[in-house]
Specification:
There is one protein chain. By secondary structure, the chain is mainly alpha-helical. The chain has one domain. Helix content is about 70%, strand content about 0%. It has three helices and no strands. Helix 1 packs antiparallel against helix 2, helix 1 packs parallel to helix 3 and helix 2 packs antiparallel against helix 3. The protein starts with 14 loop residues before the first helix and ends with a helix.
Length: about 100
């Protein structure tokens, strides 16, 4: 008889990591603020699941989750900066419109 190792299911990619990457990309194309929030939340959840997985059932997708996090955080920073610029333009616009 030949030795057969015990059955070990194939490791898969974490679905939250895939969702994080997809929404990170969508944040730059279609959904600027909402997509960034979803990418960040799913990226953190995915990395937590990947870290907590037992070594014999390793889950892949940490790189996808990190990419989604980077895209999401960059888009979120850009949205916040755009909001500050918009508020500054409004404030200075009103200030200089009443200045004679």
């Amino acid at each position: 008889m030949s030795y057969q190792p015990p059955y070990r299911p194939a490791s898969g990619t974490n679905s939250l990591a895939i969702v994080s990457l997809i929404f990170g990309i969508l944040a730059w194309c279609v959904l600027p603020f909402i997509g960034a929030i979803v990418a960040i939340v799913c990226g953190h959840l995915a990395r937590g699941e990947i870290r907590r997985a037992p070594p014999d059932h390793a889950i892949e997708g940490d790189g996808l989750a990190v990419a989604g996090l980077v895209l999401g955080y960059m888009q979120l920073v850009l949205c916040v900066l755009a909001l500050f610029v918009f508020i500054a333009v409004l404030i200075f616009g009103f200030a200089f419109s009443n200045w004679h």
